[in-house]
Amino acid sequence: MNKFLEYVPGDSLLHRMNPTAKLLAAMVFAIMCFCTSNLVILVAALVIGLVLARSCGMMRQTAGLMKAVAVFSIILAILLVFTTPAGAVLVPLPWGYIGTGSLIAAVTMIIRLEAAAIPLFLVFYVTKMTDMANAAVKNLHVPYKYAFTFMSTVHFIPVFMNDMKAIMEAQTSRGVRFDEGGLANKVRLMVPLCVPLLVSSVRKTNSAAIAAEVRGFNLRTRACGYKEYPFAGADIATLVASVALLVVAIAL
Amino acid sequence: MIEFRNVHASYNASVPVLKGVDFTIEDGAFVAFVGTNGAGKSTTMRLIDGLIKPDEGEVLIDGVPTTELRTSELAKRVGFLFQNPDSQICNNTVRDELMFGFKALHEEGPEAEERVAGIIELFGFDPDADPFLLNRGTRQLLALASIVVMAPQVLVLDEPTTGLDFRECEKVMDIVRTLHERGTTVVMVCHDMEIVGDFAEQVIVMNDGRVVDQGPTFEVLRRRETLERASLVPPQMVDLSLTLAAADARLAQAPVGRANTLDEMEAAVRAEAGKGAGVAEGAPVVELAAAPTAASQSRARVIPFPTARDDAAKQAAEQGGR
Amino acid sequence: MIKIENLTFRYRESEEPALHDINLTIPDGTFVGVTGAAGSGKSTLTYALNGIIPHCYPGDFYGSVTVEGKDTCEVNLTDLSCVVGSVCQDIDSQMVASIVEDEVLYGLENFGVPHDEIPARVDQALADMGIADLRDRMIASLSGGQKQKVAIAAILAMNPKVLVLDEPTAELDPASSLSVFRLLERYARQHGTTVVVVEQKIALMAQFADMLVIMEHGGIRYAAAPAEVLAHSDDLLRIGVNCPRVTTLVNRLRADGVYAGPACRNVEEARDAVLEVLA
């Protein structure tokens, strides 16, 4: 039922952690993955990601995410195999060769992307969007306007998904064959429906702006936020650990 | 014919929406589903249209389970008017919008053109108007027209009058009634009990994913306790009639205590008043002849366009001719 | 108090004024029901009260609208919205948060309600709308009716002096619509909140409102107590407003002198009228 990147309620340690700490740690973690080509560290990072996912009961969502990342990274990996001649020659090509080094680079690429993506996406699954924006305003002094813009953008995704679903249902029941054929067929049929979706989005964003304004959007300051987001021991520990990992990764 | 046999359904396996629903809707019936938000009415409509399939039990359309048909195939038999016309309208002109269904089914041709022209004339549309610039009521009419033009045997309406004003509402419901008179089966979800009382022939009451009562419209609407259990109140004239009957046992036996519609109630009250006051002294007793309301006048309109039954008859005639 | 004087408003993109020559005075704590055919200017009238015109939609604005002593043209929208709480027609787009509780918090936070008052206000607003159990739900997972209640709760929490609602019960079933109207009536009576509701459900408004405003082609056709307005059921029907059936029934009896009492607003009054006729 839960949609892509939509908050899943829960009570795990990850759910309870400070949103800013989670987001920062996940970002540092992702940077770390791109700073190293050490396969051992990357595999360890991947394992850490999976353990985290397990700890907050998001294995199903993570599996879905990993599949999506896999498709993307395999395409990149294939490109890499053909364009990075390195190591012992395995298959000669007209413009170079595929070597052991190319294969290692490709595998590293796949693991790296997977390892970097999991914690970042987990943050979205275990953190309410409002909390993330409010915490960014409170802890990081991000101007509220930017935080709100980001929040509304993400908040509107399910609204538009619902609209799209309603439109597709309506068209299916008029005999449009969304329910057969592959993805290509669906996309071809969906293109003409983008116009009504756009029209309704423009209308919606306009009235959303008005609705926010009449509820005091312009008065909002950092002090307005009702919820406080203090850093607890676990948050600091997580940040320290992620920075330590980064240092180790760069050092090796 | 639409049959639900012990249907269980859910959007999300952990939250059941329908918990064993049974009913049969005969061809040519006009059935209204009533109940609170979340009682399972819209889910039932989606099941009829095949947009969702039952978890358990069977939904049969003319004896065929919906699980064996694609939704787009079902579309030929079942027309579905959604609550929000904006999710349905997707073309740049009224004419294209009306042709859209034929295109989707690859049935464009002179016959389709002819039907579209008929519908445009009937509804009084400007064929070149941009649907997105029409007002809400006209868009709802266009959405209805684009379904009616396909002449489905079954018309499913999910709260067809929400957001419409009185006149727009009458216009939509007039057309629905005419279709029904021409043989189309009409199944509708409606919160407005006045509309249910005015138009439906049968009522199915749903509560918490189950059917709690069903039967001819006014038989059901007069069972106040059953309706109350589903958090519903009868339409005003039925309510008044039941209230009067409860207030005065004598009236329970009189026509006043049995009146279901405005005209019936008016005539009954006048007749009863005449009795009480004595004919010599009071106003003349008025028979069942109140001034026709706007609604009853417009009902008399004849609307010439093809429906499922006409099509079937035509086909039969063609086959017979061969 | 709300005072509208000689208000005429034309949207920039249209030729005809959406509102013309509106004069209306609404005392504090009045429950006002506004209705009329589609395009009669009902929504624009609500925009005039909450300042969306002239602040958000450009156009020609003549006359004046004063809400609680503030001229809507002279104060900015934010200052005005401290006084006027609005629930608009498009519920989905007015939601700012993804969780019900955060949605209710939003206005309270912005208007600087002291933080120790906030929990009680949120609890109260959710309880009033009967949605305390939805507190931690994702808004995207709610039904249309539930969302409508959340939107109203988010405004009620701010305790505005004036509440303006554009079709707040459009997607609600009869029982929920009734409970919303009861609640609005209670706010008007207990807190002295002025409530302005635009609705098609005239039976509910006839029963609860202190004043019915009937609009026709951008002007006000009637603005008076329900019994007074409802006495004109034939004229109302002509301009596309259908009276409650019980009202029509009693008016027919009044027309030829069978009944001499006032126009009735609900089934109970109709029962008494009929019993009187039959006595």
Total number of beta strands of chain C = 10
Give a count of the beta strands of chain B, DSSP E runs of length 2 or more.
Answer: 10
Order of helices and strands of chain B: EEEHEEHEHHHEHEHEEHHHHHHH
Helix count of chain C, per DSSP? 13
Using the coordinates shown, work out and report the CATH topology of the largest domain in chain C: Rossmann fold
What does this structure look like?
The complex is a heterotrimer of chains A (252), B (322) and C (279). By secondary structure, chain A is mostly helical. Chain A has 2 domains: 13-127 and 230-251, no CATH class; 135-220, no CATH class. Helices cover 71% and strands 4% of the residues of chain A. In chain A, a hairpin with a 2-residue loop joins strand 1 (89-93) and strand 2. The model of chain A has no long low-confidence stretch (mean pLDDT 85). Chain B is 43% helix and 19% strand. In chain B, a hairpin with a 2-residue loop joins strand 9 (202-207) and strand 10. A 6-stranded mixed sheet of chain C has the order 6-7-8-3-9-10, sandwiched between helices. Chain C has a 4-stranded antiparallel sheet with strand order 2-1-4-5. Chain C has 279 residues and is an alpha/beta fold. Chain C has helices at residues 42-50, 52-55, 77-81, 91-94, 100-110, 118-128, 144-156, 174-191, 202-208, 226-230, 233-238, 245-255, 267-278; strands at residues 2-11, 19-26, 31-36, 59-67, 70-71, 84-87, 162-166, 194-198, 211-216, 219-224. Chain B binds chain C through residues 35-38, 135-137, 162-168, 191, 193-194, 231-233, 235-237, 239-240, 243-244, 247-248, 251, 256, 262, 265-266, 269-270, 272-273, 276, 283, 290-291, 294, and chain C through 36-39, 143-146, 167, 170-176, 200, 203, 237, 240-242, 244-246, 248-249, 252-253, 256-258, 267-268, 270-271, 274-275, 277-279.
Jot down its keywords.
heterotrimer, B: 322 residues, alpha/beta, Rossmann fold, 2 domains, six-stranded mixed beta sheet, four-stranded antiparallel beta sheet, 14 helices, 10 strands, 19% strand, C: 279 residues, 13 helices, globular
Task: Itemize the secondary structure elements and their pairings.
The complex is a heterotrimer of chains A (252), B (322) and C (279).
Chain A: H1 13-16, H2 19-35, H3 39-55, H4 59-83, E1 89-93, E2 96-99, H5 100-126, H6 129-140, H7 144-172, H8 183-190, H9 194-213, H10 233-251
Antiparallel strand pairs in A: 1-2
Chain B: E1 2-12, E2 15-25, E3 30-34, H1 41-48, E4 56-61, E5 64-65, H2 71-74, E6 78-81, H3 94-104, H4 110-123, H5 136-148, E7 154-158, H6 166-181, E8 185-189, H7 193-199, E9 202-207, E10 210-216, H8 217-221, H9 224-229, H10 236-247, H11 249-253, H12 262-277, H13 294-299, H14 308-321
Parallel strand pairs in B: 3-8, 3-9, 6-7, 7-8
Antiparallel strand pairs in B: 1-2, 1-4, 4-5, 9-10
Helix pairs in contact in B: 3-4, 3-5, 5-6
Chain C: E1 2-11, E2 19-26, E3 31-36, H1 42-50, H2 52-55, E4 59-67, E5 70-71, H3 77-81, E6 84-87, H4 91-94, H5 100-110, H6 118-128, H7 144-156, E7 162-166, H8 174-191, E8 194-198, H9 202-208, E9 211-216, E10 219-224, H10 226-230, H11 233-238, H12 245-255, H13 267-278
Helix pairs in contact in C: 5-6, 5-7, 6-7, 12-13
